[in-house]
Amino acid sequence: MTKGWMSQLVGVVLTQRKELLIALVTAILGTVATLLVPIFEAAFVDSLGSHHEQVGWLIALIGLAIAAFGLAFLRRFFGGRLALGVQHYLRTRIFNHLQRIDFAAHDTLQTGQLVSEANADVSLIQGLLAFLPRLFGNALLALLSLVVMAVVYWPLALLVALSLVLIGAASIRLRKQIFPVSLIAQQEKGAVNEVVEETVRGIAVVKGSALEDVQLDRLHQRATRLYRARVATIWRQAKLQAFLQLVPLLTEALVIGIGGYAAINGHLSIGAFLLFTTYIVELILPVRQLSVLVALSEQARAGVERIFGLLDINPAIIQPENPYLPIQVRGAIEFSDVHFAYKPGVAVLDGLSLKVEPGETIAVVGSSGSGKSSLALLIPRFYEPQTGTIAIDDVPVNQWDLGTLRQSVGIVFEESFLFSDSVRANIALGRSDVSDDEIMSAARSARAHEFIEALPQGYDTVVGERGVRLSGGQRQRIALARALVGSPPILILDDATSSVDPSTEAEILDAIGAIGGGRTMILIAHRRSTLHLADRIVLMDQGRIIATGTHKELLAAEPLYAELMSGETESIAEAPKISLVEEGSLTETHQEASLTIPRLIDRPVELGWVDERFRFGSLFKLIRIGVIVGAVLVALDALLSLASPLVLRSGIDAGVLHHTRSLVLEAALALGAVSLLDLFVVILEQVIAGLAAEKFLLLLRSRIFQKILRLDMDYYESEMSGRIMTRMISDVDAFSNLVQNGLITALVSVVSFGLVLVTVLIIAPSIALVLVASLPLTIIASVIFQRYSNRAYTLARERIAAVNANFQEQVSGVRASRAKNRGREAINQFDSLSSGYRDARMNAQKAISIYFPFLLMLADVTTALTLLFGGSQVLHHTLAVGTLLAATLYVNQFFSPIQQLSQTFDQFQQARVAARQIRRLMARDISIHPAEQPVELKNIHGVVSFRNVTFQYPQAEFPSLDAVSFDVAAGNRVAFVGETGAGKSTIAKLLVRFYDPTAGSIHIDGVSLTDLDLISYRRQVAYLPQEPFLFTGTIAENISFVRPKVSTAEIERACRMVGLDGFLNHHDEGVDYEIGDRGVRLSAGQKQSVVLARLIIQDPTIVILDEVSSSLDLVAEAQMQTALDQVLAGRTTFVIAHRLSTLLKADQIYVLSHGAIVEQGTHADLIGQGGEYASLWELSA
């Protein structure tokens, strides 16, 4: 980073100049008012006996209280606007930046870490800035107090100054120790979020193969590392807090001793004595907060560095200075000696040259990883070549206006991404000016109109996150329709029909052929059927074009092409696809920081599955010893904090007034002893209570994650993953922020509140009545405030869930957005959601800004009344002046918790609302209930029967399966074919019991599936859905996901079986090759190969393959089939396929139509029948 974190933060804060100015000005004026109060109080005490002067000082004190109320309101309100404004600014700036940076940069980023930065990190910064006006005011108060004290009696002022220097030096020293562990904690929190995000995204695989234990163990490992980082922070923070609390108390002891002697000698009045003591007491609370502030500032610093580490990534692809804006796009494309690599030194395109004429259609073929998709991604300038040029209409694409370029190029990616919006909005993505007629025309061309019209709300049907409510083929057709909207002159289809059946594919290809007249088209082809559209076919291998020509020409002249078409070959070496930027460049800073923790407190926390119904009380039972001991220490700390006024009372009444120097000395020594005792109490209190709190957070994360793993698939298909993650991120963070930033200090203050009242009742019952009289107003104001703020915070939690969901979805779908120039629309949408959250928080801030200043005004008025009544009693000799001073200090201590609570109340309310949301999630019922007496089949044979199975999805109008019956013998391979949406994937979901049939039953080895032990059953099932699930890590880690203790040799053998050995031979890392977030460093075919290698390692009895080879070229698919033939031998296998060539070895084939079986038999039988299957086979051939 070019700037320090503080200068970067200041730059951000200055974006809210108005709020900053008002907050600081009111903080200054409020500080002046606070400074004057002790002066007026001292003058009041010294004027005892002069009724006229007393009344004047009393009126002045009440006037100051009213002025302080107004100033405090403005400070809090605009301080809140400042902090929330910066939070909104940073969150939206992160989002905007993610919409700007290029694909190469996105390839290096992890979604979980990004979500953490946009939530936890910006919230920490917001929390720090919420302290800012008060921090400024406290610093000014300390400075001005010193000036006043120096005027009154400079020796004591010098003593206080030295104590402040000590506090500052200690804070700076320990701050350096706190920052490294704080940064580690922030990074580990991001890693926890990453595990959650990947689990939610891959929940079908996790649940389908009973891998919940594996993911829970991953979560526990990361969460435990986070816990240890937080414990290390607590240990360092405890030492700082204890020292910061020791110094003011020792200073006060010295003030009593030295000041007492000065008062006896006539150099200091009793009122001045009160002034010094009051100032020191007023400094104690800020000093208590200082350790929290230091820890918070270091956490915020870590957040700032992480955020600006992201924002400092400059996009390599930017708008040219004088962009080319064509009048008309002809569509001529030319690659000239293009060299391209995602990572330096590993070529993906190696000197590629290619010319495509306007209106020409070319098909690009080659083995998986040969560079086909990379060629396509360079045309709309999603990546930049290292050397060479790509030109459209003879103008290099890096000179084109970016928006115009991408409007001119329609592209369908390998993986179709749909947003959680209506079908209409997904097709019209990025085009606000498109008409309904254009949308429907594009849908008809993509052969999507008919199934869209059949959806419950037609084009207004919301498709769910990533289009989860649609089949793979339906998603692909909507993505194709999206690319066709606006009739772009250049169309790139990257295997755009891999998830549709042959019949639908034929219709789509006919439609594409019909609309292709005059349009330049590049087809990345894995199927022969695509080739008939091409005027010319380009053959690629290892990043080079080795031949071009027609199908017949290449078939005759090029052995590789013949092999690709026949599917008969040995292993083909593949070119790698690796990220340009090294992973970890943003996250390795300070990773070597020590997490040294004293052995006494470095105790492991036992984690595991818990079956009991969730209650927060049950978690507290697990930490009850820490809570009890911590509570005792909190009470003892609060009790010791009461010693100062009592000692002062004794020193004045027995020592100063009677000129007994020895008693003054004894009082000072007694307070010094109390200070040293408090030092050890505070360390123990911070450590023990802090450990209990962090253990609570660790257990809470574990319980919520367990619930996430137990939820049914219908929940995941109806709820956006961002909202699910909110429970694990924002809601747990709400507890975390409360625990880490002031809870213990607030508890001490609350306990002190009650103890002060008891103490005043004992030493001055009449003054205690003044305190009691203020309680009704306090209670009434609190009830009103509670009701109003509760509504505001509840609304805020709902809105932050929407913000998180949108952020995560937009980050996941950034390629689709950028391809359609939707960046500005996405930015505006996110800005609106983030603004809504900020506004909801400001509603709560208004209430806070009135409530807490009102209570402080009430405190000041109560203090004035205390002096009035107490002064009268002093004049009548019914109350000693030392007792009056002690009582006055106790009144300040009685209300001082309000100041601390005002800083933590916002966090408390957020935690309170978060608890409600967590309870709601934890109380959610599941529909897939385990059997009351489950039957555990330890070794399933694999006999499967469907008996009149009917199934209808929730909210669906028609059943997806209608009275389906079939029997599968153990070890047989059966296949399901049919049009997209016919019910094939539904059979797979019922087989792994994501859902139970609406009617009918499913039996495994003669036992009803609902009676089986579900975990034991799923562990013997391998479910491979249409979209391969990979998580951040190495190839080895992804393959061993299903068997963590598998050997490297077994992993390498599985890689060879699926044809990954050629790819791995290009890398020194071998199976330890890092694949990036979501496997971004692999081609689609390579991802599926990794998934199939995982299947080999799992060694299941029942295998469900849902179109797993759709992204493979024919050579790779043939190699995969050879591997599968070995792996699937003796296993019951269900194949859902659109490539009918994969079904030749099936023992039985079922043809589905509208949820019913319309044909069944072997391949030969069905061809002989000349029915629907035969038609599909003819189309696929």
Question: Mind explaining what this structure looks like?
Answer:
This protein has 1181 residues and is an alpha/beta fold. The chain has three domains: 5-315 and 609-922, Up-down Bundle (ABC transporter transmembrane region fold); 348-542, Rossmann fold (3-Layer(aba) Sandwich); 931-1020 and 1102-1112 and 1134-1181, P-loop containing nucleotide triphosphate hydrolases (Rossmann fold). The chain is built from 38 helices and 20 strands. The strands form four sheets. It has a six-stranded mixed sheet, with helices on both faces. Helix 2 (17-46) packs antiparallel against helix 9 (270-311), helix 5 runs antiparallel to helix 6 and helix 8 packs antiparallel against helix 22. The chain starts with a helix and ends with a helix. The relative contact order is 0.11. The model is unreliable at 568-593 (pLDDT under 50). This is Putative multidrug export ATP-binding/permease protein. InterPro entries: AAA+_ATPase (IPR003593), ABC1_TM_dom (IPR011527), ABC1_TM_sf (IPR036640), ABC_transporter-like_ATP-bd (IPR003439), ABC_transporter-like_CS (IPR017871), P-loop_NTPase (IPR027417), Type_1_exporter (IPR039421). Keywords: ATP-binding, Cell membrane, Hydrolase, Membrane, Nucleotide-binding, Transmembrane, Transmembrane helix, Transport.
